[in-house]
Amino acid sequence: MFVVSLSCDPGIGRAVAAETGWRYCEALRKVFPDGERYVRIPEDCSLNGERAVVVQSMYPNQDSMIVEALLAADALKEVTGLEPIAVVPYLAYARQDRAFLQGEAVSVRAMLRALHSAGYGGLVVVDIHKEDSLRHFPGRAVNVLPVNTLANALRDFVEDPIVVSPDKGAAKRAEALSKALATEYRIVEKFRDRLTGEIRHRFVPMPEVRGRDVIVVDDIMSTGGTMASVVRFLREQGARKVIVAVSHGPLTEKALARLTNAGVTKIFSMVTTCYRLEHPLITYLSPVEEVLQAIKEVLGMG
Ligand code: R5P
């Protein structure tokens, strides 16, 4: 086995190689003057008959990162004779998981089919927007929910917490985290205007959060709009601390300001992309332990 990092590996490839003793290398990459990408697997890294694990996240520069991942699969299949495994800590385009309006592309389906057709036989993703989307990947695919890593970090920070999901779709995540923390969870209702993209919540009073520490858990935070709205509501309901926990946090300064104004106490984010905003309110956690387990699962090793 060997591990290959592409342009956006948030430290997972090297950590997996160190943990397993698998060989580690970085693919050679360049960008041609017209903007097209080039990938080459170094000769001293790839061996015929050895399977590769390719690590490539997809934020920022989603489209270029996707193309690199496709090119790497093509090269690896050729030099090793085996289908590589893709580890994609953040899978771009996952939120468009159905045709909300007639004629829309189901982007996640297109992405997963493309990865498989390029040559990937197995796939590991971290907290994909909807786990069910993985049915579009014809090979073996595992979704990592890094709840243990999150729960371990949260335990030191909260007392008798209650977990809240900002929408129905994230309920499974909230349930898993509340189980790991031996507590209960609640769901708030969210609507998104499909044309304007505007988010609206329908808040029903939640007296049970008064004086309690609340953890709001979601897959991703980008503009911070969803979280800010929920954090504000929970503060108004009398929550003591409101902690936000997300798997993917490509958070901008503007988004952070929104959350701060809403009254967030602390933000925990997994390191799944190649962008990170450094701020004392934010603590980053690595999902590497759970990712390694998932790689082994895809490989049928445990
Ligand atoms: C949507 O359903 C996702 O789970 C997130 O809640 C959403 O994408 C977060 O985006 P934003 O931070 O822009 O509100």
Describe this structure in words.
- This protein has a six-stranded parallel sheet with strand order 2-1-5-6-7-8, sandwiched between helices. The chain has a six-stranded parallel sheet with strand order 10-9-13-14-15-16.
- The protein has two domains: 2-145 and 289-299, Rossmann fold (3-Layer(aba) Sandwich), CATH 3.40.50.2020; 147-286, 3-Layer(aba) Sandwich (Rossmann fold), CATH 3.40.50.
- The two termini are 15 Å apart.
- It has eight helices and 16 strands.
- The chain has 302 residues and is of the alpha/beta class.
- It has helices at residues 12-20, 62-80, 107-118, 147-155, 171-180, 225-236, 253-262, 288-298; strands at 2-5, 23-26, 28-31, 37-40, 52-55, 85-88, 122-126, 140-144, 162-165, 185-187, 189-192, 199-202, 213-220, 241-248, 266-270, 282-285.
- The protein is globular.
- α2 packs parallel to α3, α4 (147-155) crosses α5 and α6 (225-236) runs parallel beside α7 (253-262).
- The mean pLDDT is 95.
- Residues 95, 129, 166-167, 169-170, 199, 218-226 line the site of ribose-5-phosphate (R5P).
Structure summary:
The protein has 302 residues and is of the alpha/beta class. Helix content is 30%, strand content 25%. The strands form 4 sheets. The chain has a 6-stranded parallel beta sheet with strand order 2-1-5-6-7-8, with helices on both faces.
Sheet with most strands: 6 strands, parallel
Tally of DSSP β-strands: 16
The number of helical elements comes to 8
Helix content: 25-40%
Write the H/E string, N to C: EHEEEEHEHEEHEHEEEEHEHEEH
